[in-house]
Design a protein that fits this description.
InterPro entries: LysR_HTH_N, LysR_subst-bd, WH-like_DNA-bd_sf, WH_DNA-bd_sf. This is LysR family transcriptional regulator. This protein is α/β, with parallel strands linked by helices. The chain has 3 domains: 79 residues, Winged helix-like DNA-binding domain superfamily/Winged helix DNA-binding domain (Arc Repressor Mutant, subunit A, Orthogonal Bundle), CATH 1.10.10.10; 96 residues, Periplasmic binding protein-like II (D-Maltodextrin-Binding Protein, domain 2, 3-Layer(aba) Sandwich), CATH 3.40.190.10; 97 residues, Periplasmic binding protein-like II (D-Maltodextrin-Binding Protein, domain 2, 3-Layer(aba) Sandwich). It has 11 helices and 11 strands. Strands 3, 4, 5, 6, 9, 10 and 11 form a 7-stranded mixed β-sheet that branches. α5 links the parallel β3 and β4. It is elongated and about 75 Å long.
């Protein structure tokens, strides 16, 4: 039995998405069609390719081996087709995702003039796991992730090192002369578990933070506004602190905590002119922003 390129393309979509349903949505096919194609491919190869799970599918070793063999050739073919499919003058929509604060403060301003150069941008916010799922399912073209994705079928490029600073304003800033004065300062966090604060305490002070934050705001821009208003102290990315002279660093560690951000895409995505333009601009502007720090 001959295996068509369409069936192999469907297989690769299922392998990357980890779901028959997600692959069907990505390819614009009916779910039964995708299921039938995978059964036909398994019959042709005389081996199972996916284990069915309550949520999605898990690739077998045979599926992983097949994906490694066909991914690059199919991605190159798709890049050729996508790169020559639309006239250069036709606007192209690029779907970009990432952390709300970083995308709003650092990325979107760098892309503003692309809207006048034949690129339509659609930006959405999310956490790393959701962003990766949307990339694999084709709902996003590019994503900035705050942790390094470990899923196969993605190209991952380090793009920015966030530097974190322990800051306060007003009376709290004036009361803190050193780490020993922090015990009575209210803490502001963006999540109940206070992961950024806990990491800072562990890295800089070498102790485990056991306090519960006095104020939780589910957005770092809200945390910044609360600290500026005198709600207490918090650990914030340096880029959010820079515009606000009233924020004072309470500690100056020899090596400030850093968190690397990653620009992620599917291999064939850069075959589209608009995606390639956005990708190149993000890397160039973020690299320049770090050089200027």
């Amino acid at each position: 039995m001959k295996v068509s390129l369409d069936v192999l393309r469907t297989f690769l979509a299922v392998h990357r998405a980890g779901s028959i349903t997600a692959a069907a949505d990505l390819l614009g096919l009916a779910q039964p069609t995708v299921t039938a194609q995978m059964k036909a491919l398994e019959t042709a190869l005389a081996r199972p390719l996916f284990d069915r799970r309550p949520r999605g599918v898990a690739p077998t070793a045979a599926a992983d081996a097949l994906a490694r063999r066909i991914a690059d050739p199919l991605d190159e073919l798709e890049a050729v087709v996508l790169g020559h499919g639309a006239p250069a003058s036709e606007p192209e929509t690029v779907h970009l995702g990432g952390p709300a604060e970083f995308l709003s403060d650092q990325v979107l301003p760098a892309l503003a003039d692309l809207t006048d150069a034949g690129v339509r941008l659609r930006a959405s916010f999310g956490m790393p796991d959701a962003l990766v799922a949307d990339l694999l399912a084709g709902r996003l073209d590019l994503a900035v992730c705050s942790t390094r994705p470990r899923r196969a079928g993605l190209v991952v490029t380090p793009c920015y090192d966030e530097e974190f600073v322990l800051v306060a304003a007003g009376r709290w800033a004036r009361r803190v002369a050193g780490p020993d004065d922090l015990a009575d300062v209210p803490l502001v966090a963006y999540a109940e578990e206070a992961p950024i604060l806990r990491r800072y305490w562990r890295t800089v002070f070498g102790v485990r933070l056991t306090r519960v934050p006095e104020l939780v705001v589910a957005d770092l821009r809200g945390v910044t506004a609360a600290v500026l208003a005198g709600a207490g102290a918090s650990v914030l990315p340096a880029y959010l602190c820079a515009p606000h002279g009233a924020l004072r660093a309470l500690v100056e560690p020899a090596v400030p905590p850093l968190n690397t951000l990653y620009l992620v895409h599917r291999p064939a995505a850069l075959g589209r002119r608009g995606v390639a333009a956005v990708h190149a601009r993000i890397l160039a502007r973020l690299g320049q922003a770090q050089a200027d720090r």
